[in-house]
Predict the structure.
Amino acid sequence: MNLLYFFKNKDSMKEKATAAAARQAAESLFAADRVTDLGKARYVLAFGGDGTMLDALREMADYKKTHPDWQVATAIGFNYGDVGYLMNKPTDRLDTLIAQARIVTVHPLEVSVTDESGKTYSRTAFNDAVVHGNSPNGQSCHVEFVSEGSKNMRYVVKGDGVIVSTPMGSSAYYRNAGGEPIRLDAKTIGVQPICSRDATAQIAGLYPVSQKIVLNVLNTNQKRPAYANTDNDERIDNAARVEIVSSQQAFPIAMGFNCPARAKIRY
């Protein structure tokens, strides 16, 4: 039995009408296999665009943290969005899709953000973690980039900020900022300064997943504040220090032959 959990975003405004209609139709079609308890699911079905897949994966990650013995389900996306990089072409032949799909496991970033008051926030990022300047006067952001591990490095980035990306997120903001897309199955994370004159040549590129990345915001004169966010979600203002490590936890995604990301995977 497939045991299907149908992901529905808690924010109804994020779900397009076409995606909602498709989800409701699938819930009816596969009613015998449907479960409403994520912990019992073998597959998590997401209807929408890549943002919907991100939201579904974050719900799975949150559940895993509170239920460590949970055997993580496999996420399957159906594209009712724009790009749909991680999503499959809609089909009601779910068994066929599952049988021929390539299962790829992705590892998110575990991000700890400390603001200038000393308050700490924990986030899980499947795409990226970003520190970005937030000066009302348009002054550049100064960030001390520290890489700890087999590739040790320390460098002050002067520009608009820094992006640390997973392979899954490398086709989004990271790429738009100048980074090269990373194969989805690569065991690396990407670093890309944003609009920096010299830091790109110094620190941009790929780092082993074993690296710990620390971004210290240099704002001693209170003229160069910065914010941090993950997966372009809720931002944290007046960030002072951001620590980033790749998670040991893997989250499987099923990709059929009509999933654009599958073409980027090494066989």
